[in-house]
């Protein structure tokens, strides 16, 4: 599925919160560009503002300074051009799998035939065709996250935002989901911005890894992942992967120690 747009730019983005009457600086001077079709992962220790950054891009919060721009248009609120998958999938428990996936489409001006086509395609893409009539409580954690991913993608957004979506899963399921999301990304061409505390996950999934420093969050490093575009889990055991993971882990640790 061709994506002609999906370019994200952050220009001098800062965010300050007021907490119990005290000003807390969460992000400072963030400059970042994510090109069309890129898969970019953002890593950092707790307090580095990863989730705040994603909220600003999603339009769920407003920058204190600077601007977030998608395809040349400033982001001023949520919109169908961005699909968000949170850590907990937030499925509607009374809706079946297929009706959860269709939810966003019901809010868009698409025909019932097009809605059915997209639901069928994304259920197949995420391996859920056999569960379309199931309710969320009948699914495993990994299956629920597949539904959340299919729901976000069914609206065919220009940008998919992933907020540590596999953090609560066991190791085996997490790796299965990592393989899935890379395959979906390659099949759809959607631009992806993901935040994760898991450096191994970031290196496996991303074409680039952005390391955020803490207190306030700012870009400490922008690292190109020099690994094949086609990856399976075996790449995690290669010297190139292990070396890059160690380098980024050291960067994250060093930034954390500066504020500890």
UniProtKB/TrEMBL annotation:
List, alphabetically, the InterPro entries matched.
AAA+_ATPase (IPR003593), ABC_transporter-like_ATP-bd (IPR003439), ABC_transporter-like_CS (IPR017871), ABC_transporter_ATP-bind (IPR050166), P-loop_NTPase (IPR027417)
CDD domains named among the record's database cross-references: ABC_NrtD_SsuB_transporters (cd03293)
| Entry GO MF terms | ATP binding
User: Where does the ABC transporter domain lie?
Assistant: 8-239
UniProt keyword annotations, A-Z: ATP-binding, Nucleotide-binding, Transport
Q: Which SMART domains does the entry link to?
A: AAA
Statement: the UniProt record of this protein carries the keyword Zinc-finger: no
Source organism superkingdom: Bacteria
State the PANTHER family in the record.
ALIPHATIC SULFONATES IMPORT ATP-BINDING PROTEIN SSUB (PTHR42788:SF13), TAURINE IMPORT ATP-BINDING PROTEIN-RELATED (PTHR42788)
Protein name as it appears in the record: NitT/TauT family transport system ATP-binding protein
Source organism of this protein record: Kibdelosporangium banguiense
Q: What is the lineage of its organism?
A: Bacteria, Bacillati, Actinomycetota, Actinomycetes, Pseudonocardiales
């Amino acid at each position: 599925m061709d994506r002609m747009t999906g370019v994200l730019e952050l220009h001098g983005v800062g965010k300050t919160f007021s907490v119990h009457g005290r000003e807390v600086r969460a992000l400072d001077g963030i400059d970042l560009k994510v090109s069309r079709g890129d898969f970019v992962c953002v890593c950092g220790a707790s307090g580095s503002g990863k989730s705040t950054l994603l909220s600003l891009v999603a339009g769920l919060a407003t920058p204190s300074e600077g601007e977030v721009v998608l395809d040349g248009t400033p982001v001023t609120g949520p919109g169908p051009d961005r699909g968000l998958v949170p850590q907990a999938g937030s499925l509607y428990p009374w809706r079946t799998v297929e009706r959860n996936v269709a939810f966003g489409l019901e809010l868009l001006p698409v025909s019932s035939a097009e809605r059915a086509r997209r639901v069928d395609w994304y259920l197949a893409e995420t391996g859920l065709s056999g569960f379309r009539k199931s309710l969320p409580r009948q699914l495993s954690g990994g299956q629920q996250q597949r539904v959340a991913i299919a729901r976000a993608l069914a609206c065919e957004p220009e940008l998919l935002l992933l907020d540590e979506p596999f953090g609560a899963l066991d190791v085996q399921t997490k790796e299965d989901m990592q393989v899935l999301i890379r395959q979906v990304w390659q099949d759809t061409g959607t631009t992806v911005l993901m935040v994760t505390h898991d450096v191994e996950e970031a290196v496996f999934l991303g074409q680039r890894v952005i390391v955020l420093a803490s207190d306030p969050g700012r870009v400490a490093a922008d690292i190109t992942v020099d690994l094949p575009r086609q990856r399976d889990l075996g790449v995690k055991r290669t010297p190139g992967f292990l070396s890059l993971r160690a380098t980024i882990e050291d960067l994250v640790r060093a930034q954390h120690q500066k504020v500890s």
